[in-house]
Write a structure and sequence with these properties.
Helix content is about 40%, strand content about 20%. The protein is α/β, with parallel strands linked by helices. The chain has 3 domains: about 5-85, Arc Repressor Mutant, subunit A, CATH 1.10.10; about 95-170 and about 270-300, Periplasmic binding protein-like II (D-Maltodextrin-Binding Protein, domain 2), CATH 3.40.190; about 170-265, 3-Layer(aba) Sandwich (D-Maltodextrin-Binding Protein, domain 2), CATH 3.40.190. Helix 2 packs across helix 3 (about 35-50) and helix 5 packs across helix 11. It starts with 7 loop residues before the first helix and ends in an 8-residue tail after the last helix.
């Protein structure tokens, strides 16, 4: 038997005929026409190479093959019905599922802990996994179910992705405690006097700081480049280097913090998910918890030291 030819609807018709005993009543049960029932029965007879039912007066009598498969067929149909029904039900207190995230730096340090705290209190069997992924791979990973949520400051334009702004932050200058450049108000000359840690995912990529300085006709001296923010504080405390970090990340560390000596637009952060998951109850529930966690983050005063 070629399993690729099996249409589950045929077994629903088979069950209805077995229950009703004739094609007309089976059609009434299924709310379809009697010719449609006859056509489905013909296809199933061909598929199983058995008549399945023989006419006895006004009744369709099942053959031994039909009698043998009705039990498993009904179990399979019931399992399918329950699976469909349960896919629309979601109880966070008993749900067991791992949601795959890809987010970095600010989101991982400030919003993800808030989300995990909310989930732990309401859904103890739901887990969060966070990993890195190339931006070009996001859509395919979401479409295949390998990734549930992606957070980034960049705007991704894709018709299959949904997005929502969840946070906003500003860059600040940071250095080791008691750094001489931070003893008074940080000036542009002082900012440029020291070596810097540049944060960029690729070697040849200019970051927002470099782009803004270039507009002003300046260039900083880059002493080190890192592809993410989280290693920067451990380097700063051992050197006289300066770095620029999102404020809500920098405040978690024992660092000297100063406003930048030039104007920068705030950075917006977005959460993305695949449109196919928009109405999924489990995904929707986690999404709502994420939005609430982000709201508590955004509600903190701009210069608050709250975690």
């Amino acid at each position: 038997m070629n399993l690729n030819r099996i249409d589950l609807n045929l077994f629903a018709v088979f069950d209805a005929i077995y229950t009703a005993g004739n094609l007309t009543k089976a059609a009434d049960i299924l709310c379809i026409t009697q010719p449609a029932v006859s056509n489905s029965l013909s296809r199933l007879r061909e598929l199983l190479n058995d008549p399945l039912f023989v006419r006895t007066g006004h009744t369709m009598t099942p053959t031994p093959v039909a009698q043998n498969i009705i039990g498993p067929a009904r179990q399979a149909l019931e399992l399918l019905r329950k699976s469909v029904q349960h896919s629309h039900d979601f109880d966070p207190s008993i749900a067991e599922k791992t949601f795959q995230f890809a987010c970095r730096d600010l989101i991982e340090a400030s919003i993800l802990p808030r989300l995990i705290a909310r989930i732990e209190a309401q859904a103890p069997h739901i887990a969060i996994s966070n990993y890195d992924i190339a931006r070009v791979d996001v859509t395919n990973a979401m479409a295949s179910g390998q990734l549930d949520f992606y957070a980034d400051s960049a705007t991704i334009t894709d018709p299959y992705l949904q997005k929502r702004k969840i946070a906003e932050d500003r860059l600040v200058a940071v250095a080791r405690p008691e750094h001489p450049a931070f003893s008074t108000a940080l000036t542009l000359d002082t900012f440029l006097e020291y070596g810097h840690i540049k944060i960029a995912p690729r070697k040849d990529l200019d970051c927002a700081i470099d782009i803004e300085l270039a507009k002003l006709g300046h260039q900083r001296r880059v002493a080190m480049q890192s592809h993410h923010f989280l290693t920067v504080p451990s380097v700063l405390v051992k050197t006289n280097l300066i770095a620029c970090l999102p404020y809500h990340l920098a405040k978690h560390y024992d660092l000297a913090v100063a406003e930048l000596p030039f104007t920068m637009q705030p950075t917006s952060y977005y959460i993305y998910w695949h449109m196919s998951a928009t109405d999924d109850p489990a995904h929707k529930w986690v999404r709502e918890q994420l939005f609430k966690a982000a709201e508590s983050f955004q509600a903190a005063p701009p210069n608050s030291e709250a975690a």
